Amino acid sequence: MGLRVYNTLSGAKEEFVPLEPGKVKMYVCGVTVYDHCHIGHARANVVFDMIYRYLRHRGFAVTYVRNYTDIDDKIINRANREGVPYNVISERFIGEFDHDMAALGLDLPTHQPKATDNIPEIIAIVEKLIAGGYAYQAEGDVYYCVEKFASYLKLSKRNLEEMQAGARIEVGEKKRHPMDFALWKEAKPGEPFWESPWGRGRPGWHIECSAMSMKYLGETFDIHGGGKDLIFPHHENEIAQSEAANGKPFVKYWLHNGFVNINAEKMSKSLGNFFTIKEVLDKYDREVLRFFLLSAHYRSPIDFSDQNLTEAEAGLERIYKAIGAVEAALAGGGGGGDSAGARELAEKAAGLPVRFAEAMDDDFNTAQALGHVFELVRAVNRVLAETAVSRDILLAVQESIRGAGAVLGLFTSSPDEFTARLKSRKAADLPVAVEEIERLIEERKAARAAKDYRRGDEIRDQLLALNIVLLDSPQGTSWKVK
């Protein structure tokens, strides 16, 4: 069975068959660049980075477009508050977004267009919609007429009449129907503007994504993605304007990631229960955050909490310790007979790529895929503690775990590097320097070698009183913060 994806448009899992064999065209809505990105942005971008990676892993040539909305009311309002041009704000937060995405280990998309670089393309689509009777000019504004598009709301499965009953036209709006939406906005005094057939103004939010996706991917493409919050109105309106302009289907597969909850409550800026990516990465390693975000299926809600991040850190640490044990065994030269444990480990190592692919082919089920990685990790810990294993088996284990990690953007460091990052982060709040901890560990090692076990226990207890736990293993003594 091949790759299957859940299509929001059909409401079902479908076999993934791209429009052009061997090639995938994918567009994902980017951010409006007026502020720092929060954990919800992290989830959406990590999810579609994972999808991008897996499609390439499967052999597809992927053209991935992710835009910047660099003109918007929020950008203008912030620029006015700070007394600077709008593009000072947008360029600042494009830089901040790029920094955050690099910190999360995202691969760069093929194209990252800005709305303001595509004004001619936007105007051309609006002109087509007016000519086709799907849009109308109201003084300096242009609106899309939703009643003209017979399949409006087919993505969100809503009812236009019911929505109309609860909607109203706001003061100052010139639209004919409460659900009509702006394609072009007349510039207010002091606002940035571009010249158009309808006067000076700027594009509406929805039209820019139609223009940029069609410019780079064509009038019909394979995948359009984003958070569930974009299904209505943004993606619904993209479909309406794009299909009305072109007379053909806009997107074959619509993919949407689930919401992030904060301590079991829906994240919302209005509630003040949101965290920026920078705030989270001040507390947790970048790979821990990525591991946490991929530990649930991308369509499911995920609960962000310190407890869940701590559990994710512990899980990732277990995987790195298994990788370290394999590397230590390889450094020792490997070797061993044909034991039952060795055969089991060889079987699980060979089976991981198959089971991993089966999980990922089932609508990118990263939770199940990581579960299969943990199965191999448990076997590594058990078998290597009991018996020696041949070099070929050790290399197969290493390749299987690292191969899964490459698709997920995980396990990219050496175990020593990962451990050092965790120690450095946690040691910042300790009442003792890392160098002193390492010195005491060396002193304890010397005391134990001299059979001075009392002194060794004193050092262990001294560090434990500082919340530092010593971990003895055949490879030596390591430590962690309690």
Automatic annotation (TrEMBL):
<keyword id="KW-0547">Nucleotide-binding</keyword>
<keyword id="KW-0963">Cytoplasm</keyword>
<keyword id="KW-0648">Protein biosynthesis</keyword>
<dbReference type="InterPro" id="IPR032678">
    <property type="entry name" value="tRNA-synt_1_cat_dom"/>
</dbReference>
<dbReference type="Pfam" id="PF01406">
    <property type="entry name" value="tRNA-synt_1e"/>
</dbReference>
<comment type="similarity">
    <text>Belongs to the class-I aminoacyl-tRNA synthetase family.</text>
</comment>
<dbReference type="Pfam" id="PF23493">
    <property type="entry name" value="CysS_C"/>
</dbReference>
<feature type="binding site">
    <location>
        <position position="29"/>
    </location>
    <ligand>
        <name>Zn(2+)</name>
    </ligand>
</feature>
<dbReference type="InterPro" id="IPR015273">
    <property type="entry name" value="Cys-tRNA-synt_Ia_DALR"/>
</dbReference>
<dbReference type="InterPro" id="IPR009080">
    <property type="entry name" value="tRNAsynth_Ia_anticodon-bd"/>
</dbReference>
<feature type="domain" description="Cysteinyl-tRNA synthetase class Ia DALR">
    <location>
        <begin position="355"/>
        <end position="419"/>
    </location>
</feature>
<dbReference type="GO" id="GO:0016874">
    <property type="term" value="F:ligase activity"/>
</dbReference>
<keyword id="KW-0862">Zinc</keyword>
<feature type="short sequence motif" description="'KMSKS' region">
    <location>
        <begin position="266"/>
        <end position="270"/>
    </location>
</feature>
<feature type="binding site">
    <location>
        <position position="234"/>
    </location>
    <ligand>
        <name>Zn(2+)</name>
    </ligand>
</feature>
<feature type="binding site">
    <location>
        <position position="238"/>
    </location>
    <ligand>
        <name>Zn(2+)</name>
    </ligand>
</feature>
<protein>
    <recommendedName>
        <fullName>Cysteine--tRNA ligase</fullName>
        <ecNumber>6.1.1.16</ecNumber>
    </recommendedName>
</protein>
<dbReference type="InterPro" id="IPR014729">
    <property type="entry name" value="Rossmann-like_a/b/a_fold"/>
</dbReference>
<dbReference type="InterPro" id="IPR024909">
    <property type="entry name" value="Cys-tRNA/MSH_ligase"/>
</dbReference>
<feature type="short sequence motif" description="'HIGH' region">
    <location>
        <begin position="31"/>
        <end position="41"/>
    </location>
</feature>
<keyword id="KW-0067">ATP-binding</keyword>
<keyword id="KW-0436">Ligase</keyword>
<dbReference type="InterPro" id="IPR056411">
    <property type="entry name" value="CysS_C"/>
</dbReference>
<dbReference type="Pfam" id="PF09190">
    <property type="entry name" value="DALR_2"/>
</dbReference>
<feature type="binding site">
    <location>
        <position position="209"/>
    </location>
    <ligand>
        <name>Zn(2+)</name>
    </ligand>
</feature>
<keyword id="KW-0030">Aminoacyl-tRNA synthetase</keyword>
<dbReference type="InterPro" id="IPR015803">
    <property type="entry name" value="Cys-tRNA-ligase"/>
</dbReference>
<feature type="binding site">
    <location>
        <position position="269"/>
    </location>
    <ligand>
        <name>ATP</name>
    </ligand>
</feature>
<keyword id="KW-0479">Metal-binding</keyword>
<comment type="subunit">
    <text>Monomer.</text>
</comment>
